[in-house]
Structure formats: structure tokens, C-alpha cells
Amino acid sequence: MQSAQETLRPLKKLRVATDAFGESKGQTTMAEAIIFDMDGTLLDSVDLHAQAWQEAFAHFGYNFDFPRIRSQIGKGGDQLLPVFLSPEDLQSRGKEISEYRSRLFKETYLPRIKPFPGVRQLFEKVRLNGQKAVIASSAKGDELTDFERIAGIQDLVDTETSSADAKRSKPHPDIFEAALNRLGNGISKDRVIVVGDSPHDAEAAKNAGLRTVGVRCGGFPESDLRSAGCIAIFDGPEDLLEHYEQSPLARDR
What we know:
With 253 residues, this protein is α/β, with parallel strands linked by helices. It has helices at 4-7, 46-59, 66-70, 77-84, 87-109, 119-128, 141-151, 174-183, 199-207, 222-228, 237-242, and strands at 33-36, 43-44, 114-115, 132-136, 159-161, 192-196, 211-215, 232-234. Helix 2 packs across helix 5.
């Protein structure tokens, strides 16, 4: 199965301004903090997560189509499982399935994850600009540590939030609200930009009162990213880095 990175080649450049949050297309922004999603945004891992869920479901006798499962990646298990299981099955098998998937992912799929091009350089740009780099992921804490290592950004992340910091995962706003709390009161919401690959990221950010820059590298349809409220869309970290000063991430524009 092709990775999202392979599927999207060659990528066309897309920088799409919208009027989300009532902004005019010419309005300037001053971003002081950038909150990054992890899977599908910095790491080419969406297909691997979907395969792990599909295999875990099958292990317990549930067979679901891969595209249907893939469309739900970006949510945590608390939001993904109810899409596929009845309330009764969720109550009796949900925890067992989730724990099995977690073990399976670490043993089989984690070693296959690769970062998208330009990830570390993008974080170095954020640091050089004097901006805060934040990770807000639905992943579990131990998984997030592995993901940051794979992405090569452990020393460039100012703060992070994982599923342990949120009662509900994306598309609920909890994970981004936790990230805002970690940033403190010194940075207002209008000085924060989210970068994510899925509609679930954009919806969660919007519910938290934040703007989202979308990236296509996770393989979600551009139309879905637009509909979810992304204020701009780029191919991935490398494209965003190349056009950083023209993007909503620029500190002063």
C-alpha cells in the first residue's frame, strides 16, 4: 500500500486564503505560537494507523473497509471506536480492542513511520523566528515521545499535549485548549496558528477559537480541509517552510 507521501507525488503548490473567522484575505497576522498536529502533518503515518485499526478490528471479528477507517484517523480511540461499534460492543470490547491496537501499532507499524521532508527545518525556522512550537496530538504520551524522536524535533518542541491531557480527543477542542493552557495567558488565541492535515484538526481548532493552516500530505481531500475551515492549504512541511514568510505562520507580515 502506498504512503500518503507517495500517493500525492507530484504535489502541486496550493496556498489558499479564505475568510474563516471573518478575516479579510489581506489582513495581516502575527503568530507567536504554532501548534502542530503530528500524524499526517509531520509524520507519514495515517495509512499505518488505519492499517493497525483495521487489523485490530479484524482480530476481534469486525471487518471494516480501509477507506472508512482511514477517514477517521486523527481522532483518538474515544471518538473513533463509537463510529464502528454499537454501544453494547463499545462497552464490552472497546477497551480490549484499543489496547490490542496500541500493542500492535508499537510492535508492527511504529518502525515503519517516516517524517515528511522538511520537518526539522520547519521547526528550526519557528525557533529562529522566536515563536513557540507546540505539539497537540491525540496520540498517547509514550507514542508521542516516539513520534517526536522519529521526526527529529525533540529539542525544538517548547511544549506538548497528548491524549492524557484531554478528556475528549479531536474533533473536540480539549487537546488544543490544553495546549493553550500550557502556553499561558501571555499569548492570545489570535496569535496562535494550528497546522494540521485532517478535517478533525481544523474542526477541533475552530471549536477552540483557533485558526488552522491545512497540509495535504496526510492524504485528506482538499475540499474537506476547506470545508472544515482551513485558512490556507499547503502541500506539507517542506512547502510550508518554502513559503513561510507569505503564510499565516509568519511572525510579522
